[in-house]
Amino acid sequence: MAKYACSVCGWIYDEDLGMPTVGLPAGTKWEDVPDSFECPQCVVPKLFFKKVEE
User: Fold this and answer.
1) Residue 5 forms beta bridges with which residues?
2) Concatenated DSSP letters for 7-48?
3) I want to staple 24 with a disulfide (CB 3.0 to 4.6 A). Which of 28, 31, 32, 42 is the partner?
């Protein structure tokens, strides 16, 4: 599974963990996260996230 970082504030979305508090259970792939998703820290839209290369 992958991780995606907000390019503005650095907050990480981890597919392994998801975000159950907003209806994204653990294992939710980034492509399945709705386009309306916003960073929970700085409120920028999903398009500002980049895949974290490990």
Assistant:
1) 12, 50
2) TTT--EEETTT-BGGGTB-TT--GGGS-TT-B-TTT--BGGG
3) 28
